[in-house]
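Format notes (please read before filing issues)

Several people have asked whether sequences and structure tokens are stored in separate files. They are not. Every record keeps both together, in the order shown below: the sequence lines, then the token lines. Line labels are part of the format and must not be stripped during preprocessing.
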Amino acid sequence: MYGDPGWIESGALLGEGVRLVFGNRRGGVSPPPYASMNLSLAVGDREENVRANREMAAAYLGVAPGDMVFMGQVHGTRVAAVGREPAREPRTVPQVDGLYTDRPGVVLGVLTADCLPLALFFPSPRTVALVHSGWRGTLGDIAGETVRRLREELDAGVEEARAVLGPCIGPCCYRVDEGRAAAFVEKFGEKWDVLIRDEGGWRLDIARANVVNLLQAGLREENIVRLGECTCCRPEYYSFRREGRTGRQGSFLYLLEEV
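Then the structure lines:
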């Protein structure tokens, strides 16, 4: 069994019978600048390193690599349903930034290095969804789009839905230019405090913006949890803002067997 790399177990924040794990960069085989648990095949790391890291991640989770499903991640708002398929290696669904499933043992995966990994659990019917939300996805409201998709297609109960927002770049480190700040002011207005102005310009609270999107989609505020860890501040995480060329950590969400 793969040793504990200090990943954050957060399933209890969502509900019984759900496992949610936010990963970091520790414990893999990739050399700098990807050291060491890089799970992305799209950043320049050697394929054999990424495959080995994915196998170790699966071992830590106690699942087979073929149970894992990643999203293509294009900073859009497309969401896809996934089920169980026979596979020996992790699958990737192209051109999507959100995945959902009602099948136990289907392990949803998202790769980040400052963007927000956002997990959702709907008790009725029992469904989990995992979302990748950068600034483009936040302006496009992928979080709300995911909630609406599940409500329309599965008649999911939104009022009882729960969300956990994982490690991402915080407003302490996320400076944006006037153009991007204006886009967020246009979408969110000023009452939601998604932007902070100081002498250096604008700082964006991307997690807060996604909380607002979830609230406007119908979730209750008491059912939304922010972990609040900044990937740019903390060296155990990959951070594109801090490092530029770097790896991607994985976060994983899945239903356990029926409870």
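For reference, the curators noted about this record: The CA atoms of residues 125 and 156 lie 6 Å apart. DSSP finds six helices and 15 strands in the chain.
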